[in-house]
Amino acid sequence: MNLEIRDAKLGVVGLGYVGLPLAVAFSQKFDVVGFDINRTRIEQLSSGHDRTREVGSTELAAATRLTFTCEPDALGEANVYIITTPTPIDPHKNPDMSAVLAATRTVGAVLKDGDVVIYESTVYPGATEEECVPLLRELSGLVFNDQFYVGYSPERINPGDKEHRFENICKVTSGSTPEAARFVDDLYRSVVVAGTHMAPSVKVAEAAKVIENTQRDLNIALINELAMIFNRLEISTEDVLAAAATKWNFLNFRPGLVGGHCIGVDPYYLTYKAQEIGYHPELILAGRRLNDSMGAYVASQLIRQMIRTGIDLRTARVLVLGLTFKENTPDLRNTRVVDVCRELESYGVQVDVHDPWVDGDEASREYGITVTKSPGHGEYDAIIGAVAHDSFRELGAEGIRAFGKPGRSVLYDLKGLVGRADSDLQL
Predict the structure, then answer these.
(1) In whole angstroms, what is the distance from residue 98 CA to residue 88 CA?
(2) Which of 12, 234, 396, 421 could crosslink 23 through cysteines, CB 3.0-4.6 Å?
């Protein structure tokens, strides 16, 4: 390949939680065209506003070499394309590659001799070269690994995390030829101060991404199952974990709802591919089933406690504090708080959800949930601390309990918002 790093002009396709920080970082060294099909998103970014809150207005204003567009033809100015579109799962928990394949079609239509296409979207091992490359080849009419090349560098963005940013997280890189691999690695190394790790193949880099989150998913599943056991034994999971953590090599995972765009999704990409090649993965799927069941478990625990307290479920109202999949981010992707709400509603309980980070229109559109902006004090039979937003922590036990009916409400703290002595239930 003849493309030199100094001549790189980047087109970033998809300007969400992953693509926007990446585009801003690369614009410190290169000309970057940021493309997204959402016209409203482009208008907001062009005016200096990022609704995801991952990039501040000052950072956007300083990114003078970055332009935003929703016109596919504008991508033709680039010679390096980085695709960062989402890869969720469908209702049957199979990979949904529609967005990344649509982005591939967009790039394929403007691909030129000598260009490089890099994927950051999470996929199963082999997807880039088996699913995306044929599309690029068909639409461009170019010869793979002669006239165009691909790379894979899995995203490691952690929404809401202001410490671990794109530039200071080590990046795995790879390419479809040794020369392409070196080019991709040099490109990322030019802006990622934490350094890079060049994998020996695209497929290895794809596999590394899915096992990072599969490993975490399984560890949380183990702790969730232990929490269920300890609850029946009437001992505190928190106390058990604190004691076990005194051993130097104990892994300090916590029980909880497992949602988000990675941990609750990535294992299904790996299990899909495993089953395609004739292997049925037992442990990974068992962990997924257990974590997917936690919403129903939480709801049942709360219902039992409400009954013990003498609360009439027919007229009961529950306030859920937090809807996002994690704290201090507006990210609603694959949030499992929804499971708790729906399970409670199946008992006939009225559920109100309050989350100051959430866009109410998005919550309604994605989940049919109406977000309560200002829940009243003294109105609820039970409160669930579902997400550990700083604003909820700052309320303290007294402030959170103030939402409950005086003297007869239940507080279920899923995230350690208050001390154990100040809550009625904890995971």
Answers:
(1) 9
(2) 12
Phi, psi (degrees; rounded to nearest 5) at 126: 105, -15
- Output the pLDDT for position 123: 96
Using CA atoms, how far apart are residues 208 and 212, in angstroms rounded to an integer? 6
Residue type, 180: A
pLDDT in tens, 260-285: 888 999 999 999 999 999 999 999 99
DSSP 3-state of 133: helix
Question: What's the token pair of residue 388?
Answer: 């550990």
- In sequence order, the 6+-apart residues with CB closer than 8 A to the CB of 191 are 25, 26, 28, 29, 167
Single-letter residue type at 178: P
pLDDT of residue 2 exceeding 90, the answer is: no
Rounded mean pLDDT, 302-311: 96
- CA atoms of 263 and 247, how far apart (whole Å): 26
Stretch 208-223: mean pLDDT, rounded? Answer: 96
User: Going by C-beta distance under 8 Å and a sequence separation of 6 or more, which residues neighbour residue 190?
Assistant: 5, 29
Please list the active-site residues.
262
Answer for the pair 281, 380: CB distance below 8 angstroms, yes or no. Answer: no
- pLDDT tens digits for range 28-66: 999 999 999 999 999 999 999 999 999 999 999 999 999
Q: In 127-166, which positions are buried (b, 16+ CB within 10 angstroms) versus exposed (e)?
A: bbbebbbeebbebbebebeebbbbbbbbbbbbbbeeeebb
Both tokens of 264, joined, read 């609750």
Q: How many residues does the chain have?
A: 427
**CA 117/CA 82 separation, integer angstroms:** 6
CA 324 vs CA 158, 164, 385, 412: distances in Å: 14, 19, 12, 17
